[in-house]
């Protein structure tokens, strides 16, 4: 390893190795590779060409990961965000009957605004204004959120019309694949085996193939589909953003991506131990990286790009530098040609990893001052709100709206940063916009 590489990525300083960083990048990619197949399916429902979306998803993710790795030097991966892609397809295109080309123009305009407010450091100021207790709550809330995703994807938790959620059926064979992976990964983690989460996923995939619970892929290689149906569509249809309804759509794209990414970056930075004096070093470069990726994604032809909570899987196996994100980005590029092989990584394979990572991130709960109710209440609403609303931004909103109120009630209103008061009103408007028509 060259001295320049070591110095730039602070490999020795962060007590890591190139091998560990590459392993972490593999782990993160495997945890989030599903987006290559989920995003085309979701946007395809809106009439967007699935093949083009597959390639756009891979390239936008790769661009974001590379930028995050090279510029910000963080082990944080980016990709088209779940939730906002569903809003794009089902609410905007299908619900509002807006052509997908116009909706893509909305994403492009939101991306431009996103980039401008990042350049003027508004996003950086907001992240730094969030108090440390709420940042720990964000990290813990994301942990519970992704653990809940893992439990659901693995079949251990299912919808129940009487109790909202309930225990899954143990008569489903694939659920036992999740249980096997969870027990094995838990044992490896307790025994402190390096790369335990990654080993658990590989072992679970092998067991799934041997038991035929996971079908063997018919091919190993496949050509990347053409981008022609989606490339530049959003730019060409900017003139369609000419109504109040469309500007509400643009604002929604902007706000959801803004707060989802802010919450995710803070949570992951807490998990990795990057926070110093309640501030995230190089946060401006991290925000610029994901803003640029969102703009690139809108040109390529996909829904908004943002930081991914699944990056926590790579951080959990020791990823601490930008080499982790760069590795993930390279794998996204290769993934365009090895798409048949990625079908081996089913939700039952990634579920145990997400559950274990949830445990690791929940450790931040210990740092919250639970003895002060003015802190405990908004922190609790964030922690509980994220998994129960199935949204990082909604959970964050519950806590941020409550925080100034409880601090004023405790006669500590002067301790609240002015931006937190501003966020109080922003989030009230944010919640009102999201609930229009519900």
Automatic annotation (TrEMBL):
Coiled coil: none annotated. Keywords: Cell membrane, Membrane, Transmembrane, Transmembrane helix, Transport. The keyword Transmembrane applies. It is a multi-pass membrane protein. It holds the Pfam family Xan_ur_permease. InterPro entries: Azg-like (IPR045018), Azg-like_bact_archaea (IPR026033), NCS2 (IPR006043). Its main location: membrane. The chain crosses the membrane at residues 21-39, 51-72, 79-98, 104-122, 134-152, 164-190, 197-216, 246-269, 321-342, 349-368, 380-406, 418-437. It is found in: Cell membrane. Belongs to the nucleobase:cation symporter-2 (NCS2) (TC 2.A.40) family. Azg-like subfamily. This is Guanine permease.
